[in-house]
Amino acid sequence: MKTRHLLLAISITAIWGLNFSVIKLGLSTVDPLILAGLRFTLCALPAILFIGKPDVQWRYIIGYGLVFGIGLWGVVNLGIKAGLSAGIASLVLQFSAFFTILLGAWVFKEKVSRSQLAGMAIALGGLLSILSIVDGTVTAAGLILVLLGALAWSAANIINKKARTTQVFAFLVWSSAFSPIPLFALEYAVNGSAGYSALLHQLDYRAVLSILFQVYPNTLFGYWVWNSLLKQYPVSTVAPLSLLVPVFGLLGSVMIFDEHLSLNKVIAVVLIVAGLGVGLYGQRLLGAVRKRWSRCAA
Which of 13, 96, 139, 252 could form a disulfide with 150 if both were Cys (CB 3.0 to 4.6 A apart)? Predict the structure, then answer.
């Protein structure tokens, strides 16, 4: 990978990691479901007026929009609001990789390898380390909600795979159009008009910047650049860099919210990132080692 592309990819992972702290800033004055609704409204508009519908069945576009917008980011917003720190949220959400493996085995009858099972076991050790954190940055409700968000992300990945679209940006824009109305309706059903009244009276520059950051650098620009790199380079070259997301997520929370970086958190990061590495790339690395060993033996 060219140096400028490597730096660009790392910048995207930094943006995605920092996004969790940016979400938390927005949640200081905007209700979680409204914040997610505003995010996906601007992801869809005005871009949808200039970008043609992707060549994908409507059920995939609508399904992805509902699962990605509500099940993932609406629920993750609720989890952060429920007391889970931005850094820990970015870490826990990475369990979506393992949920995707398990759902893939169920839906597509894909075989789960021993390295994937080993990776899950290592990452579960990281989750246990998170459960032992008692500094106020972890709550049971927040942890459960973000794990549910991770499950929703894996379901969105399955929908995306079944859709088999090559028009990734158009798919993201059009599917985003189906997220806002259900999010706004859910907010009204749960809290009535209180959240909307607060939005009119409490909206400040932090919330506005939070929404704009989530829409443009994080979602539209981030996914466009990432998928462009995937078209230019092998997946095995680009995808491992996503392991940096929870690292940047935790560092962002430390810098912005002065989150204490305890030993338990360091252990959790190491175990979960190591588990992801083993689970996603262990089989490939083992195969490469065996191939090189057989050449040397010959």
Answer: 96
User: Residue 239's pLDDT is what?
Assistant: 67
d(CA 137, CA 85): 5
**Which distant-in-sequence residues (6+ apart) come within 8 Å of 217 by Cβ?**
15
First to last CA, the chain: 31
Question: Three-state DSSP class for 139?
Answer: coil
Total count of residues recorded for the chain: 298
Amino acid type, 62: I
pLDDT tens for each residue of 140-169 = 999 999 999 999 988 988 898 888 888 889
- Tens-place pLDDT, residues 164-209: 888 889 999 999 999 999 999 999 999 999 999 989 888 899 999 9
Calculate the alpha carbon distances from 10 to 18, 219, 248, 269 in Å: 12, 15, 10, 18
Ramachandran angles phi, psi of 137, nearest 5° = -95, 0
Contact 8, 224 (CB under 8 A): no
Answer left, alpha or beta for residue 258, where phi above 0 means left and psi between -120 and 50 means alpha.
left
Among candidates 22, 10, 127, which has minimal Cα distance to 73? 22
